[in-house]
Amino acid sequence: MIAAPEIPTDFNLLQESETHFSSDTDFEDIEGKNQKQGKGKTCKKGKKGPAEKGKGGNGGGKPPSGPNRMNGHHQQNGVENMMLFEVVKMGKSAMQSVVDDWIESYKHDRDIALLDLINFFIQCSGCKGVVTAEMFRHMQNSEIIRKMTEEFDEDSGDYPLTMAGPQWKKFKSSFCEFIGVLVRQCQYSIIYDEYMMDTVISLLTGL
């Protein structure tokens, strides 16, 4: 009889290892299939953290409060890039609110706020020109007035405070209210600010 060949011990160990690995692999495959089949059924959408809620604007929250002025422009009631003259002319905002916004703007950057106020008076006088920030910083009042004189409509003697019609009648009323509220709100603080008074009065005197 031919003796059966002896199987090396290393070979038996190798077979057991392969069988073990194959079983583990099959188990992992089954688990993977179960996860794929159950995908989207058991997972719940997690809540957004504070950082994620801040994405995409205000996350459906309230818009930022407070005045919003940029380069002497005003934003209120959804109207952007509107100068003080236009805000008063439209008369859609309470003058108390307009003045409060201007005062906050002055506290934040007095040059920008004063530039807006100066342009308000210049446009009320019928001038179509606009004093720029560059002019305000580098030109004397006499030079600014001379430049603005070139923008007047010499063919017409009318200007917003003297024009007839319902729109301008309302504007005159809003103008008086604005000045009254401005003086009242500033009488104990900003109105005694030498910078503001010197700048505005000297320009108005020259006009």
Automatic annotation (TrEMBL):
InterPro entries: Cohesin_Scc3/SA, STAG
Matching Pfam families: STAG
STAG domain mapped to chain residues: 158-207
Positions of the UniProt region annotated as Disordered: 1-75
Record field: compositional bias (Basic residues): 36-48
Signal sequence interval, chain numbering: none
Residues that span the membrane, as ranges: none
Family recorded in the similarity comment: Belongs to the SCC3 family.
UniProt name for this protein: STAG2 cohesin complex component
